[in-house]
Amino acid sequence: MPQRPIVALALALPVVLAGCGRPTGDFGRAEPSVLHDRVMPALGERIAEWDRREVVSDFNRTDREVGLRDRAWALVRAPHVRDWFGETLVEFERTRIVPEIDYAFDPKGYYNHLRKDPFVSSETRWNRAIADMRIDAGLIGPFWGDARRVREADAHRLRALDERRGGAPAELSNAYARVDENARVVDWVWRAMRLRVAAYRDTIDRMMVETPSDRRFEAEIAWTELRRAIDRAEAGMPTAPRRLAGRPAPSRYTKSETITEKVPQK
Fold first, then answer.
1. 90 confidence band (pLDDT: 50, 70, 90)
2. What's the predicted TM-score (pTM) here?
3. Domain chopping of the chain, boundaries
4. 104 exposed, middle or buried (CB, 10 Å; 0-12, 13-18, 19+)?
5. Which of 89, 107, 119, 201 supports an S-S bond with 124, CB 3.0-4.6 Å?
């Protein structure tokens, strides 16, 4: 085994053994934490750069870039999904200690978790699913608003870089890496919402078999509203090529891919 992966794994072991999710306070907001705000991100950047050969920017983050990441985390790791979505894994992915592993998450996990919860009434499961879909729909708009503003700032950054001839190679590399990092954050949320839409679709269909209810109509409305919220949010984010450094995974912005093309219909 190469030396660098051994070192990276050795450094990551204490954090992995801790097995802790990011601490939260009121309304599920992240609380300040030296471990989660400094130690884990620094460790994750080193692993991403040394072990996985991903691009990592040394630039300071803008206020909007910080806000984008906070909203992304709050949306991907919403309180209603932390028990089935993998709270600790989400935190490891956020801090780049592990690569993009959310592709492997199973949409069926939501209902598998929901049906094990000892609700007194089967109607409570329907209520829970409806409420969760509405929560997601409410969080999507603000996130994509921040995503559009960050993307506009990235466009200004690249134009300024083009106008600044003779810049240092490190400046060039860091600028391209930051654009790539910002796009990865948006990709992460987009994948999470795609998974969530599929999970809710699976839940509605399975509950109608296991515990049929008149609440299905309300659930279908909530599911449709969630899909529409995602469509509206993404309408202002047309596809555009990313300028990359290194060998990162391609973003969906380089494709004409939309969420409706990936979620199975019933």
1. confident
2. 0.75
3. 3-261
4. exposed
5. 119
